[in-house]
Amino acid sequence: PGIDASCAGCGVKLQTTDKELSGYIPASAAERVPAICQRCFRIKNYNDASTVTIDQDDFLRLLGGIASTDSLVVHIVDLFDFEGSVISGLQRFVGSNPVLLVVNKIDLLPKAVNYNRIRNWVQQQAKEQGLKTVDVVLCSAKRNIGFDRVVEAIEHFRGRRDVYVVGATNVGKSTLINRIIQDYSDLDAELTTSRYPGTTLDAVHIPLDDGKSIIDTPGIVYSHRMTELVPRSVLQAILPDKPIKPLVYQLNEGQTMFVGALARFDFVSGDRQSFTLYISNGLEVHRTKLERAEELYANHKGVLLSPPSVEELDELPAWTRHSLRIPRGGDYDVFVSGLGWMQVNGTSGALVDVYVPKGVKVLVRDSLM
Ligand code: GDP
Fold this sequence. Notes:
GO terms for molecular function: GTP binding; nitric-oxide synthase activity. InterPro entries: G_CP_dom, GTP-bd, GTP-bd_ribosome_bgen_YqeH, Mito_lipid_metab_GTPase, NOA1/YqeH-like_C, P-loop_NTPase. Its EC number is 1.14.13.39. This is Ribosome biogenesis GTPase YqeH. The structure is a single chain. This protein is an alpha/beta fold. It folds into three domains: about 1-50, no CATH class; about 50-220, Rossmann fold; about 230-365, no CATH class. The protein has eleven helices and 19 strands. Strand 16 (about 330-335) and strand 17 form a beta hairpin. Helix 1 (about 40-50) runs antiparallel to helix 7 (about 175-185). The longest helix has 14 residues, at about 115-130. Guanosine-5'-diphosphate binds near residues 173, 175 and 219.
């Protein structure tokens, strides 16, 4: 580049002499238009390569391939959609390779949380899903929380092995790997990305300096997550971006809550008690009497009750009802994959009906918070 050329990506002054310094661009690439520095080049190419997704069958085949390698498996899950994003049976497919569970998006929890408690909860849930893990690390790729611990844990458990990174879509896998590419001090200038061409195993290889690689696998698509069913415009609304402000409602039996036209919660029977919604704070909640719920929905779906809009509703499966019994004693969550959960601080038990688009995973679990 000319003396004053700067990187079209980040604006840093370009230079071809020192790989260790910012703005380095290989001489062979210097005539590229627009010219971008090596660091931006990696990030850009990584991003282009990392949007690959895969369905369940291909994914299981891919996992089966990992069984015959000697590697560390890093499984990234989304704390906001834990049961929706966890790959149950992972251990069965990856053979004797250790699995490190990285739990992303902890920034979404309200400020005053006890991280030890969250970690214990995750360990318990993982166990119930049949997942054996060598360790659980909490982090936020986006807010850069716990990231050092993620890198440390990877280094600790990988020894001199390859690292396979697996996860469902939208768990933050790209964001996290981008952080690794940018911050991992061992990944100096030689770093480039490449793929196995022509296979469904369209994984991105990021070489490490000991000759091993971090292998980013395609994101598995689970159609039981609301995030996979809704159109893009609605995805923005349901994926929370900021710490969730819990919404507390005191309800009598016979009351209903709508979350836009995405979900409906009926408090069918039980003593008056509190229900706390943990959902993206951009979403609107409407309360009504159960006996009026059908009418309200029929007259207002897609308009007062939105998102989704009227047109977007056409793209979604019709609602299906889940009748749930919340046990007496203890605290439980009514979990809706991709949307969030409703906490029931019941000592008296309750019957709750949940309506969500057909296919979305709904379950009752021990309370996260
Ligand atoms: P991938 O599909 O697993 O590669 O996920 P992406 O990295 O593309 O992230 C999916 C969505 O989650 C994007 O909207 C990200 O901004 C968001 N995201 C990723 N990491 C975090 C995080 O730590 N916290 C929050 N709140 N959002 C995140």
